[in-house]
User: Fold these one by one.
Assistant:
Number 1:
Amino acid sequence: MTPLLEVANLSIAFGGLRAVDDVSFEVRPGQIVSVIGPNGAGKTTLFNMISGLYRPTQGSVRLVGADVTSAEPHLLARRGLARTFQNLQVFPSMTLLENVMVGHHLQEAGATLPDLFGLPSSRRKTRATAESALSLLARVGLEKAAFREALTMSYGALKRLEIARALALRPKILLLDEPAAGCNAVETEEIDQLITEIASSGVAILLVEHDMKLVMKISSHIIALDHGRKIAEGNPGDVAANPDVIAAYLGQKGQEQVLHADG
Amino acid sequence: MRLKPKHISLLVLFVLIVMAPLFFPSGFYYRVGALIFINAIAVTGLVILIGYAGQISLGHAGFVGIGAYSCALAPVHLGISPVFAIALGAALSAGLAWIVGRPILKLHGYYLGVATLGLGILISMVLANEAQWTGGPDGIAVPDLGLRGLLRDWGFRVSAGELWYWLAGAVLIAGAWLALNLFDSPTGRALRALHGSDVAARTMGIDVPRHKLHAFVISAVYASVSGSLLALMNRLVTPDVAGFMHSVHLVTMTVLGGVGSVLGAIFGATILTALPQVLTVFHQYEHMVLGLVMILVMIFMPDGLLPSLLKRFRGRAGK
Ligand SMILES: Nc1ncnc2c1ncn2[C@@H]1O[C@H](COP(=O)(O)OP(=O)(O)O)[C@@H](O)[C@H]1O
Ligand SMILES: [Mg+2]
């Protein structure tokens, strides 16, 4: 199978700081590829380059075979890339339902004038979108709060809202930046199941997550970053055993956690 | 069928417009009402730009000016009827907004404010300085719309005040209907999304510059129609309509009433248009009182008058 996402020699510098330095990897359909590394390793910056928010100083990003390096985010969305944000980026004064409806933009948007005149075609789209958005909210367990404004919801709920909103794009590849941050054990378990489900439907997933137990359990492939550089790559067992990774990130405590997850 | 918020808003607006004349002590109030509606039309456009899309404009009186002067000049120089002059003004405003909007809307916050301010000043300078066309600072006469004569031929006798009250009221309802349609449509959601988070909107596939531009053009058309009606009602237009103070006035109305809501902004237009008429008793303190009202509202009701009052009312009803 050809890779959905090919990242080659990607680098970016902020002033003197090389936040991401010569990173390459691939993600194939149905794969869950995790990017791990300590805080400040460059994981979010990597996501920002792939999703078109930052312009890399070097290297390339290919999506479904096409070069999309530095392409506008909205064009990447059109090509099947969706993402969530580590620091929430919800639409605060819109309801949860409307937030997820916005995720349907590419399916429902047309000319502006029919929307202004409230033509039947426009209203039909809004109805269909609302229905689909409601079922996506149900999938992340938020359907009861559908008509509440996003700003009234807890951090954990908004994390799940972002996943539902990203799924609304019907992506080929989904980038999740710390989806389980701020979630309790039960919620983390639910997110684990959700991610596995999404991947088994054929969506490629690129995941950044600090919960090592979760990462070790669901990843098909792991990339370890430190100071912007890729220091290891492979299946969960190999990466967890890699001495550089242990030194940079996992530490003694982390390794125990990993062993625990394996057992 | 359950009434949607859109229908409730329109119903409230309709009832208010129809009922208000029952309480008018004199014919003079029809004129005040018409003035309120004409301002509210421009303000409704600004609700789309500022309230939905989150983009400020301190120059929209420029488009009011284009609409107003189109009705003064086009009938005389192009020989078209005032009705077509309204459409011409709207088209000119839309065209200018389209051309200028592209570069300007790349700016954010204060910078966008200053750039739109410049645009407004530029338009009002042209109107004031091209005296051979526009009459300069003294202004210029505007031809009669001809509707009153038409009605008289059909056997209806209405005063000018009444005519403009009902005409502007009807246009306002139409304008509010369009804005409310937009709110709950794919385009409206895209506008509100880019207002809430520009970054998230872009990753959702929203072409942010295109949507901002559409909001800018639509709001320019509202302002232009407002200017046309003002000119045709007053039968005279001076460059003040395009001036900075009028732009500020419009934005203040939008924010005072409640920037995200069409009904709220119309409420703001009502208060800020009607208050000076009431305050003529104070005359020299008029602007001070207005300023004070604005400051107090912004401190105590940052969401705007109507949303804050509704929230308080609902909070009490819920207890
Ligand atoms: N826009 C930016 N400007 C300057 N420095 C940045 C910017 N974005 C990220 N950085 C820096 O890049 C490094 C990597 O950050 P980040 O990608 O957020 O790390 P991670 O997500 O792995 O915790 C950090 O040192 C951070 O300060
Ligand atoms: Mg990060």
Note: Confidence is low (pLDDT under 50) at residues 252-256, 258-263 of chain A.
Number 2:
Amino acid sequence: MLDIQHLRVVYGITEVLRDVTFDVPQGSIVALLGGNGSGKTTMLNTLTGMVKPAAGSIRFEGIECAGLPAKGFVQRGIVQVPQGREVWPSMSVHENLELGAVTRKDWPGIRSDMEEMFEIFPKLKPHQRKRAGALSGGEQQMVAIGRALMARPKCLLMDEPSAGLAPAIVSDMVDTILALNRRGLTILLVEQNIGVAAAVAEYAHILQNGEIAFSGAAAGLVDNPAVLGAYLGR
Amino acid sequence: MLLFSYLLLGGITTGALYALVAIGLVVVNKSTGIINFAQGELFMFCGFLAWMTHVQFGLAYPLAFIAATVGGFLLGIVTDRLAFRALAKTDIVGLVLATVGLAFVLRGTARMIWGGKGDYLSFPPITSPEPVMIGDIMVVPQQMAALAGAIAIMLVFAAFFRFTRIGKIMRATADNAKAATLVGISIQNVYTLAFGAGAAIAGAAAVLAAPLTLLYPDMGFSFFIKGFAAAVLGGLTSLSGAVVGGLLVGVIESMAGGYIDSSMMEVAPFLLIMLVLIICPTGLLSLHKTRDV
Ligand SMILES: Nc1ncnc2c1ncn2[C@@H]1O[C@H](COP(=O)(O)OP(=O)(O)O)[C@@H](O)[C@H]1O
Ligand SMILES: [Mg+2]
């Protein structure tokens, strides 16, 4: 579904992604792992038009998307839940979700999707009118995911959704990711927490030195010493 | 009591006009991080547009209002597209200097078009210029009309930001521009819109102020300074803060002029600002957190 080939991304003279090739099959959950600063966030930003690649191709449902502006990616159905949640702190939860649908004009559909968000995240319902900045980290993560879902994505890119959350909340997050996938959403998941990645993903790719250093079944990750070595950057 | 009520009402009225200028500054600063030094000149220019519509072409006052606000909006959009967008990749200092340049261009253009017709142009009053006594209080109908207009515009602006999709898009961009880009908002268009909205409200302020003052090409700076002072008092990013700041500057200026000396009118607001900034450097409303409109 999402087909990335020979992708190269540079910041000035720093080459962050040298030559990255992998794909995310329709309906799957794929994990993208790697040490700190290995370029995971850069990868997701390139896949959502936030960063322009220097070379390579990004095909989504067979159509070339490299070079599109961020809006173009959202309209084609690729939406990112960014690292650090990045909610609009002074706006209400309701407004945060509502603006997730900013590229849509089907007002009845938007309204019914709003209802649906509060079914997926019932904990947000009593906080609808609260400023998003006043919520807990876990609740803000729900707002960030809900906001992305409001665009009706086909493929969701999640950047470390479990970071900074208490263990009980992380396990809720795992359930949420699996539930979204069961509804037909394709997910590319960036994680620091290998346990989370192994629990939800079928495949995993590990980024190292600007390339994919390992690809394989996610289930075998946790007890593969070579992988762990690569992952920790040793 | 008579003098006090006169000074108070006069101060509130000019303060409401300063507040409108300040709101324009805040709207631009909130989304783009730029102080628009041409805000006063946009005010002046739109005042002349209104004068041309109403006095030269003899059209009704509401049409002059439309000419000034729509004219201001277009002026804001065009300057953003022509001047500011080209500089978007440079640092913020370059952009702020560009607004200073715009101020001079507008002033020069106004001199060319409307200069040489006598130094000061007057705008006919829209209500009776005679003061009216209500009990012990002296009320100038023209001032009350301007005040009512200013309040109406503030309410419309607040409703725009709270209830419309475009208003929410502007708030989101001000809140977190990266997140706005991620959901598919075109940030550059929001900046254009912010300059347009800021100039439109300058235009609205000018139409309300015109019957109370004289129009001349150099009038913009003093309104800019008062509006800027009001915006700083309110913390530069708060619309409600801009309103409170504007009213304070207007009332203090009026009281100082009436009770101390007319030479104090220009100085007193700045003494207040220095005091406020020493006590709470991020603006008056930061003392107790208030929600932005
Ligand atoms: N906007 C940027 N400009 C320059 N360098 C950047 C920028 N963003 C990230 N980098 C650098 O690119 C590398 C990869 O960063 P990032 O993609 O955030 O990694 P990760 O998400 O895997 O921790 C890091 O060395 C980081 O310092
Ligand atoms: Mg990262």
Note: The CA atoms of residues 26 and 145 of chain A lie 19 Å apart.
Number 3:
Amino acid sequence: MTRELSRPKRKNPILRTRLATLPPGARSRVALGLTAAAARGAFELQVCRDCQAVQYPPREACQACLSSRLPWRVQAGDGELIADTTLAHSNDLFFRERVPWRLGYVRLDCGPTVVVHMHGDVPPAPARVKVGARLDKSGQAVLIAFPSQEVPNMADDRQLREFTCDPKFRKVLVTDGKTGIGQAIVKAIIAAGADLVWVGHAEPWKKFPGFDELKAIPQVSLMPLDLTDSKSVREIAAEIGGRVDVLINTAEVHRNFGIGNRRGVEIAQAEMDVNYFGLLRLAQEFGPALRGRAADGQSNAVAWVNILSVYALANFPPHGTFSASKAAAHSLAQCLRAEMRPAGIRVINVFPGPIDHEWNQQIPPPKVTPQALATAIVRALKDGVEDVYPGDVAQEWLERWRDNPKALERELSNP
Amino acid sequence: MSTNILSQLVAELSSGRIRIIDLTQTLSPEFPQISLPPEMGQCLPFRIEEVSRYDDRGPGWYWNNFSCGEHTGTHFDAPIHWISGKDLPNNATDTVPITDFVRPACVLDCSKEAAANPDFLLTVEFVKRWEAKHGVIPTRSWVLMRTDWSKRTDPAAYQNFDETGQHTPGPDAEVVQFLVHERDVIGFGTEAIGTDAGQAQYLRPPYPCHYFMHGAGRYGLQCLTNLDRLPPTGSVIVAAPLKIQDGSGSPLRVIAMVTS
Ligand SMILES: [Zn+2]
């Protein structure tokens, strides 16, 4: 049975902080299909369109009929553990530091037999298991066999924690606590077990609704942080950068303009200055600190969360300059992900549909509530996914975008 | 003769019999800027980005790029800033007469009143009482309203917002007209974020200092500091805005010359 995670002891400052190591990360292009699905939290395998055979490992042609028509389809993951073994020695640096490490073979009910990492509560073979896909520290999909039923403290399993970014006992920076979103995230992350939450607030002379409530939470430390001010970001990073395990960037400027309905560029600049340059400033100042602590014991630095927008995928002309700033932030977040990956730090991009706040007042429902967004972010950390599309609108746009980006562009420009 | 006067000025400066006092706040990212409702266009705060500092970006030199609004930090308001002054001649930072950049100042000490009441409004009666003591305000002088507001180094206390807006001292509508028409002042200066009071949108007309001063081609200075080091009369202010084409105002270094 998994032992409940306990608060780690304070670290011994005489010992060197270990550097991050990564599991083997090379994949063929076709195998990246598994990663693409796992990045969204889905377990998908190729299924032959001609003979319905489920494929594993990923391949170019059907192993049964040689058809090349092999679309990726979501799998339930139920199967039978047919063999398991415990790795006691490895020349791979990543596994060498983590042995003993349990591996197994699972025959999926849908056909193929797959190699899996094992949750500690899976009994020895033969046993019924549920297989899921997770991203490993290299950012690549691996398969994990879970017990077929939920067990206590399931998320606290030692091997599973190598694939997740659970906020429990971790220290979190929420960059802007002035908004409903920021405050909902602070509360959700504390409810999920975070030890300490630094909460940024720009322009401290503007007292915001919820300030007193936030200030009264014992885990919360409010600090002036303005993403438009390089000096502010640099100083806060110098102060707490070496302690932050999870950074959640909630700072955002959102105005409701396209190109033609407002003269001048200064609103668009304000959006870019926070949504794009703010992320760049944060990444330059906090990125190295997080990377340096990626293997710092149980409460190591693990994740970076960006709240983007589903408008980052395709422009929503009534909020056109905002969409553009989020598209820029999305692109930069991909760069950040590439630069954080060598340390195994997960960069999670969240693409909500319209959020229920003042700048979307005239957008009709459904809108994502700050609470639902916060729940989705905590879920994403616990599951270790990379891309999150919370809410019905985001889900629908994602489907349409994956199906035909050009069609979505037209649909969004003809409201 | 004029060479003589200037030599004398330099000699007096060197000897310390004329002292120079800096009335300027440091331009820093922390210094608060005027805040309008969020749906409106905003004045940018001061921001600074390092270009190089004797490093790979420029091995032998240090320099920065900075950005800010025309009304950031200690700054000058030109008549064109307000709609009432928009059609006046020579009303912008590049065209205001340069002789106006060096003018005498009268300093009205309202520090006790402002300490007791952050919404304190300067009145004609207050000015007349001051004049009874110090003499009539000379023509083409700056009138500087000392409130010690600049001693509020905490930005929240300096801005002094609550849910009804900002609470900072300033002049009432009547005194501004009195200063313009009866005393022919060159402009009005304050220590708070604006020449008008924090609640001045509720005065009639709204923002009377901006409305009447700029409407009459006069200037504003705000976010001043060290006014407590100036005598009530006898100081000379040097306040030259940047020569921004068609500019409505400009951050600037404001200095005062005083005799010891
Ligand atoms: Zn087939």
Note: The first strand of chain B starts at residue 18 and ends at 22.
Number 4:
Amino acid sequence: MSTPETPAAPPSPAAKAGAGVATYLDERLGTNAAGKKNLRKVFPEHWSFMLGEIALYSFIILLATGVYLTLFFKPSAQEVTYDGVYAPLRGAHMSEAYASTLDISFEVRGGLLMRQIHHWSALIFVAAIFIHLFRIFFTGAFRKPRELNWLIGNGLLTMALIEGFAGYTIPDDLLSGTGLRIAEAVILSIPVVGTYVQFFLFGGEFPGDDIIPRLFIIHVLLLPGIMLALITVHLMLVVVQKHTQFPGPGRTNENVVGFPLMPVYMAKAGGFFFIVFGVCALLGGIAQINPIWLFGPYYPDQISAGSQPDFYIGFLEGSLRAMPNWETNLFGHSISWNVLVPGLILPGIMMTLLAVYPFIEAWVTGDKREHHLLDRPRDVPVRTAFGAMSIAFYLLLFINGGNDIIGLTFDISINNVTRFTQVALIVVPPIVFVITKRACLGLQRADLNRVLHGKETGIIKRLPNGEFIEVHAPISAEERFSLMQRNTYAPLAAGPATDEEGVPTPGHKVAKVRAKLSKFWYADDMPKPTPEEYAELTAGHGHGDDHGTDVEGHGH
Amino acid sequence: MKRLSARRRHPLAGLVVLLLALGAVGGLYSAFAPSGTAEAADDASSLQIQEGKGLYITSCSSCHGLNAEGTSDGPEIAGLGAAAVDFQVGTGRMPLQSREGQAPAKKQLFTEEETVAIAAYVASLAGGAPIPTAEQYAADGDLQEGGEIFRTNCASCHNFIGKGGALTRGKYAPNLTGSDPKHIYEAMLTGPESMPTFSDGVLTPEQKKDVITYIKTIAAEPDPGGYAAGRIGPVTEGLLVWTVVIGALIGAAVWLGAKPS
Ligand code: HEM
């Protein structure tokens, strides 16, 4: 704290106390050495590196508010007669779980606020996981050595979806009961074992008395415990493997450029936590969410128009609604493709593809090196296009989940919305792929132009011979360096089909497929200019500006 | 006792009793008859039917036929009764403007009086359910009972709290939160379009009243949780999160992550 010029200032009492505690801990736990190392850990700067933090902070808020709710929530399907303060339901028969949620909402001090903060943070939590995932994907942060953390993240995403579904279900209101019913139908559609699995999970016929207490334990103990452990590992891996950074002057695959954890990053992170907390609390205070008292208690014979799950389950709802009504009869058993495919097979494929993507990419590109410098999305057009295409697919499913709301709001027939989705699911993703890839290549070309010719100034000059040219100003050396630090790859070759003796090379078929894919991946990339090319090009362009002096010094 | 029984035997006693009884009956009658004499009432209602007939012929007969027997442009409505007509005309659905899709509720074309006249005319053709009285559709039934009946019988089309919902092929169950209690009663009684009919055998008049009580009470309930974004539920909640909330948080991240210059 004290500056060198005023060495006489005595340490404040607080500082003395702090030093005392630090010494006490150090003498027993050896914390100073560990602290020195970790608190000086450098964290690179970029706003997109803070997206994962939103998920972390909302998880902490979920833990805190969830503990409060647990004090008052009764996870029981026991039927009771409601006699609380909410008049429209007084005298109604309902489960104890639903009654206690009403009590939390209307009679427990701060209960409604806590419920609403809990639910808003749940939505923010899952949304934050998604945008965090997008950042990791589009910048290639999942590449070696971070594939394991990618898998852990995938596990966390899956568990967050289940956790949210379980939390949404335990209040046992009519809306969530409808969701549970759909989940049951999906389980029942599993060939051969579906019925047994359903009986095992529900402890008998739907809905039964067991499912609410079971989901409760899953929701408050099992999944939060596993997630907490996985989040810890996730973050420890970030520390051990160090954080990735965007390319720039002075940044290499071997270093990390940024601010030390203490104090700069700590201050930022702490501030960010309070921002996230503030947003959750604000929403919980002023915006109603999940008004279960309006939905009524769950009875299997009731259902409401416009029933919708929380957004993160919406894509499943949408895929169920998009599926044509196909069923097969096989040896007296009907296989309900109409539920099985959209409810289990499709999401299974989606989650699997997401999880194994890093391994697919590494195989196709043959790139087994470590990467600590991130890609700019435009520099890997095929990956970026795959990502955009997948998001388009997901969004279409998601939108179809609300086909009734869309139909009603915009006065379109539900049948037409569904038909549109069915066609769009097949047609739109490839179109998105092509457009995104083109856009990336266009941006690459623009980068190249910037490097070779400088940036456009908007000033038009007329030459003596009457020709008009735009004056280009040279870009800074830093920018030029950053723009050209990307990797370039040559497509892999399949190698000869036979060796010198004419014996077929083992695995040649696979190698051929891989070579094709690799070509698809890289063939269209803009090549980076070689230093010779660069010199030649700039010399040949008589724009009157002398640019490109110190490029070769960077030696790309 | 003795005196009383002695007087009862008075020769004029029979006459007095007869007079008293007649007086009582007459008094009762005039107390119960709505206005004037029975004849005058008859006149008034036949006048009303006459007026209704005139309006019917000009506005409705082109589609429903001169005797409400139906044409290729509109179904038979003779026998549907006054309630059906009052609902259709009272909510502005009839006279129909275009044959496309479901007849939408719109601004009522006729005055209340004219509406009742048309209803009376159609009822005079072949009877049917009468327009309910204000007592029948007063919102003072059992709230909780009404909620339960509503969730069992109506929510599947009209949503938990009557926000409305989409049906197949562009049809829809309308939003009920602003519906007139009388029209709610009539809708249940007559089952317009693809809505089922809830006759008194299915839902007793008492239960209909409960339902009306529920719809009107819930629509007027404040939202204890704060701004409810139209009470549509998860869709608006998700939309809010993905636009405003995530937008604001990313904004905060950009702000915090900005390089100190
Ligand atoms: C980690 C992510 C979590 C997610 C995504 C999540 C999500 C949800 C959701 C959507 C609800 C429905 C709330 C509502 O009524 O609107 C809920 C309810 C509940 N949650 Fe969580 N939750 C999480 C963690 C926790 C934790 C850690 C606890 C306890 C330690 C907890 C305890 C509860 C309880 C008791 C309820 C039911 C009470 C009520 O609805 O009022 N939750 N949760």
Note: The radius of gyration of chain A is 29 Å.
